[in-house]
Amino acid sequence: MLELIVRGGKLVTPEGVRQADLGISGGQIVRVAPEVAEPARQEINASGLHVFPGLVDVHVHFNEPGQAHWEGIASGSAALAAGGGTAFFDMPLNSLPCTLDGPSFDQKLSAMQAHSHTDFALWGGLTPNNLQHMPDLAERGVIGFKAFMCNSGLPQFPACDDATLYVGMRLAAQLGLPVAVHAESEALTAYLAQQKRQQGQTTWRDYLDSRPVYTELEAIQRALLFARETGCRLHIVHISSGAGVVMAAEARAKGVDVSLETCPHYLAFTAEDLERLGALGKCAPPFRSELQRTLLWVQVLQGQVDIIGSDHSPSPPEMKQGHDFFSLWGGIAGVQSTLGVLLSEGWRQRGLALERLAALLAANPAKRFGLAQKGRLAEGYDADFALVDLGQTYTLRQEDLFYRHPISPYLGRTFVGVVQETWLRGQRVYAGGKIEKPRGVRLLKGTIPFGTEP
Prior knowledge:
By secondary structure, this protein is α/β, with parallel strands linked by helices. The protein is built from 13 helices and 17 strands. The strands form two sheets. Strands 1, 2, 3, 4, 5, 14, 15, 16 and 17 form a nine-stranded mixed β-sheet that branches. An eight-stranded parallel β-sheet has the order 6-7-8-9-10-11-12-13. The protein is globular, with a radius of gyration of 21 Å.
C-alpha cells in the first residue's frame, strides 16, 4: 500500500506540463501515471492545481548561530516552505562564527538539525584566513566554498585578494567542489564609494553610482579567468546585469565550467525603485537600470541563466535606518516571494514556460550541485513538491510573512499563484498559512560531479 497519492494535479516537469497522479512511499515518488490504481493511506485531491517540484534555493543567509535575531533558521526555513521551497543552501557568513572551519561547520549543522523545516546544504567560506581549513570543510560535507571579491561588510569574512582566490580555486578543484563568487571589484567599488563620501554625497543615487555595472563585469572577468586556469567549477552568484550574464555565457561557450545565478529582485525592480523603497531595496550589486533589467530578462528567456536564488539576507529594521545610504545594512528579505516573482514577472507577463521556471528554481540547482534525488517530479526522486493555484492572485501583506522581521520590498505587490501546500519527502510542511515541523531534516551533499551541465 502506498503512503500517499496526489491525484489529478498538473505536474510541472522538464518535458512539459501534464496531468498525472503521484504515488509516494518512504518519502519518495514511486509512481507517476495518468491514474495510480494502488490503494494508499492518504489521498490529496490536486484537481485544478499545478504541482511544482519543491524549490531548491542555493543562496540564503539565515544568520544562525550567533545572529538569529537577524532571521534565524526556524523563521527563514518556514518562509521558504510557505513560498513552495523544500531545500536551501545557507551561506557561510552573517552567522557567528562564520563557517570557516570544522568546529564552526559543526555548530551550524547542529542548529540546522534542531530548527530547520526543510532539507539544507551548507556553504563553507573561502577567505585569506582559512585556506588550510578547506579540506576539513570538504570532508564534513560542504556543498562548496563562497568567496567575496569585495568587502562583505563583516570583518570576520574578509574579501579574497587575487592570490587567495586563485589558490582557493585550485584547492577547491582538487577537492572536487565548486567555488561561488560575489563578483564586484573591491578596488573600484571602494575607490568610488570613498570619492562620494568625501564629497558628502551619501544618497541612494550616490550609492548606485559607486557600484556601476563595470565593477561587476571586471570581477566576473577575473573569476572566469581563474576558473579556466585552475579547472575550478565556478558559480557566479546574484548576477545583476544582462551584460554580466552575456560575459559569463560567452566564457562557458569557450569551455569554462561556470553556472550563472541571478535573483528575483533584479528581475522585479530597477534602480528607480530605490527612491520609493529606500534601504529595503539596498543590496550589492544594486538594482540596475530598466535597460539592464530588460537585458537580464532576455538572457533568462533565452536560457543563459541557470539558477535563480533569493539571496535572502535580512537584518533588524534599525540597521536599515539613517541618512547615510552607504552605512545602512544591505540585503533583500525575499525568500518567501521567489516563486511569486517568477510566476508574475516571468510566466504571466513574459511567457516564461512553466517547465523552464521549474528548471531555474528546482531541477537546475539540484542537477548542478549533484543532489541526485531532488528537483524533479519523477520516480526515484524525493517527494518534494508544492501545490499551487495559478488561477488566484494575492497581495503580499505583513501578516503573510514568516520572517522574524516582517519587512520586505515586496510588501504591497500583487503576485500570481497561491501556494496551497508544500511537502518535503512526503511530509506536509506548509498548508493553509501554517507551518508543520517534519520528522527529521537532512544535510544535503553532492553525490554526482558538480561539473554536470544544468
